Amino acid sequence: MSDKKEGLLETVKTVVYALLIAGVFRTLFFQPFWIPSSSMKDTLLVGDFLFVNKMAYGYSKYSCPFGICPIDGRILSSDPERGDVVVFRHPTQGRDFIKRLIGLPGDKVQVQNGVVFINGEEAVQVPDGLFVETYEKQGPQGGYPACANAPVAEGGECIKEKFLETLPGGVTHSVLNIRDTSVDNTGVYTVPEGQYFFMGDNRDNSADSRIERPIGVGFVPAEYLLGRADRIVFSSAGRSLLYFWTWRADRFFKAIE
């Protein structure tokens, strides 16, 4: 074999090995995730880039790309905790979602006047000022943010009320309020065994477990959990992660609360 052919073969082998290593790393340890929507503001902004800790809850068939892992149920599993920010596979849409875990198996969850109650205990909300952003297209999808002070002209200030919510168990995080919606007052959701109840922190702009599938998320079985989001790596305010001049310097390696 000529030196040229040997060199080409070695290059191909190197690329194949690199792809295999990357595939194993993504399957077992950390999966990259880019925030495409506003449902988790202001905890997560459109354009935040993070790695999902796939070791946190163990593994199911959905831990592999395209759901091809030959796993029945979950292995090496650990239970998620209330307040975790979790990436999961939508049970019917086949897309990955990111929301906050509110209800554990057996919990009774209800929303009254925009306030969450879990097993009858109020998740107390304390006013925390305003969340202000520019009314402009965001991310590659080019969507505009929803504003409590609508209508807002292009380039104007888009304002939402902000609260600090403390869940039973002590996790405190930020939530936003835009307006009164149909899911600000709900019936009681009883979370089935082996399933979980999720909500977005941007409460009035989130399709989550308050809404049944296929439009919403409904209850999410444990096998669809992919991992926990712990830290933002970097964040881009532009239409692409490659537009480094739009990166948000204050969000580099920011912990997710």
UniProtKB/TrEMBL annotation:
GO cellular component: membrane
The keyword ATP-binding belongs to this UniProt entry's keyword annotation: no
Catalytic reaction list: Cleavage of hydrophobic, N-terminal signal or leader sequences from secreted and periplasmic proteins
InterPro entries: LexA/Signal_pep-like_sf, Pept_S26A_signal_pept_1, Pept_S26A_signal_pept_1_CS, Pept_S26A_signal_pept_1_Lys-AS, Peptidase_S26
Major localization listed first in the record, in broad terms: membrane
Origin species: Aquimixticola soesokkakensis
Domain of life of the source: Bacteria
Membrane-crossing residue ranges in chain numbering: 15-35
NCBIfam families attached to this UniProt entry: sigpep_I_bact
Membrane topology designation: Single-pass type II membrane protein
EC number: 3.4.21.89
Gene: lepB
Listed GO biological process terms: signal peptide processing
Entry protein name: Signal peptidase I
GO terms of molecular function: serine-type endopeptidase activity; signal peptidase activity
